[in-house]
Amino acid sequence: MPIASHSGWDIDTKPSEHGEATRVTLVDYSSLKPRSFGEYVRSAYAEKGLVVQPRMGFAEPARMAAGLAATRAARANTVGTITVDSYTRVGDHEHVRTALEHGLQLNGYPIVDHPADVTAKALDGILSESFPVQVRHGSARPGAIFAALSRLGLDASEGGPVSYCLPYGRVPLRESINNWSEATSQFAFQSGGTAHLETFGGCLLGQLCPPSVLVALSVLEARFFCLHGVSSVSLSYAQQTHFEQDIEAVAAMRRLATEFVPARDVHFVLYAYMGVYPRTRKGALELLREAAHLAVATGMERLIVKTSAEAHRIPTIAENVEALEEADDAARHPGDRHPADPGNAGSDCVYREARNLVEAVLELSPDLSRGLHIAFRRGILDIPFCLHPDNAGRTRSRIDPQGRLQWLDVGSMPISPTVEPVGPSVRLTSQGLLADLNLVRDRFDRPELAGRKPVAPID
């Protein structure tokens, strides 16, 4: 029998083998959202410009609902986010239930363990055709999360078989690929054709990964989604250390997407800088504005924001709204130093490297899942500074004097080093690594600490 009804959402309980009502099926929900998440983003971008989105996630349904409502009400062109907690991410549902039972804090929304009618009530009056919600999670085992989304009628998520495996834990890559293969196919089927998935491949490790690998993995993961039935995808790229190099990277990603991603609906999403973040409020907001300027310069349809509290703690709802409005304002006032044509990227070095990597993986096997696994086993794909057991770990990178990310050592990847043979000026040391890790933070914090405006980005 129905246990709840919210704006046409009829939730039926189904008794388990133990006689308990544990499984729910959501009925008659599709009338709320005839378009996919991707179609909405492209439409909103065409009408109002850059779409901005938080990483917001709170354990309590009422607070999660308040965060979504505040996102919708922000003075910006927004979509909503539910970010899942870390225990759910790794499938530790016992700890989730203990936390919920004892009122302990979680760092996101436990969408699997909150009853579906509770989440439906939290979304009631907020989720609509004009305000879609994406669920972000970070899991190498997304099956239970995707199943929870399907029960709720939610059809937008993100991640990838590589990008939500290597940086996040010790789940074997083969297992992650198998998990993602099954979960993606089920998610695509259960959505009735509206499923949307965003790659996380453009953000591996957050920083110090040269753009060609980020672009290649974003393209490969988007292709993976399409081959498993998802026809609406977005490709991600994370803001790095050099504005012009980022423009080149996004142009390369767009070009490769037209060549290798067989989707009917594609858009592109930029992540505000994912490395060591400025500690000062002004520095953090200036870096966010720089991300918005980059999104405009490259024609990105969507931007995932960071807040002024990023270096210190989980942001509040108000801090998330501030970031959304700051990014929206920056996107509307990008200045005149950025190219009007996002495809005018100058050098095609990133494109050539990324294409070599994509083609090398595709040549390994007609089955992309198998090809990805072989590529990492042989070091054809190799993420610098990544300690996962299935990553070869033979590549190294660093930031050159101009601020560009460059390869010091490419291991077995089918590309060439972009730094001259190692000498005293380019040899990687612990001091040099720390300086590279903190370069962006220091560039945006130092002027504020000195009482001056941040310097112009390196280009």
UniProtKB/TrEMBL annotation:
Which residues belong to the signal peptide in this entry?
A: none
Quote the SUPFAM superfamilies the UniProt record gives: Cobalamin (vitamin B12)-dependent enzymes (SSF51703)
Compositionally biased region (Basic and acidic residues): 329-340
According to the record, the residues making up region (Disordered) are 326-345
Q: Which keywords are on file for this protein?
A: Cobalamin, Cobalt, Isomerase
Taxonomic superkingdom: Bacteria
User: Do you know which Pfam families this protein is assigned to?
Assistant: Met_asp_mut_E
The protein's GO terms of the molecular function aspect are: cobalamin binding; methylaspartate mutase activity
Task: Name the Gene Ontology biological process terms.
Answer: anaerobic L-glutamate catabolic process
Query: What positions belong to coiled-coil segments?
Result: none
Q: What is this protein called?
A: Methylaspartate mutase
